[in-house]
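Subject: sequence -> structure tokens, single chain

Hey, anyone have a minute? Need the predicted structure for the following. Not urgent.
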Amino acid sequence: MFELLYNLSRIIQPVLIPVCFGMAWLIVVMTVGTISGAIASTVTKAKQMHQIPCTGCQFFTNDPRLKCPVQPRIALTEDAIGCRDYWAKR
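Reply:
Had a minute. Here:
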């Protein structure tokens, strides 16, 4: 039994080494791709969040209970981008 396994491993070994090498590089490439995708997604989301004008609005209270008395449901959310009630602070 052990002699059969030994002979089988000697036959498979020339194929197994390149396959394992290729799989290792595939894992590295997939990991780098996943990390770069996550970074790109985070940068895109950060750029979008910086477009929210609420903190520069005259009506913004910075009170955790009521951030905006005019548009309380959309204050500090993505829906506030292009808010029609925005007035710049003086």
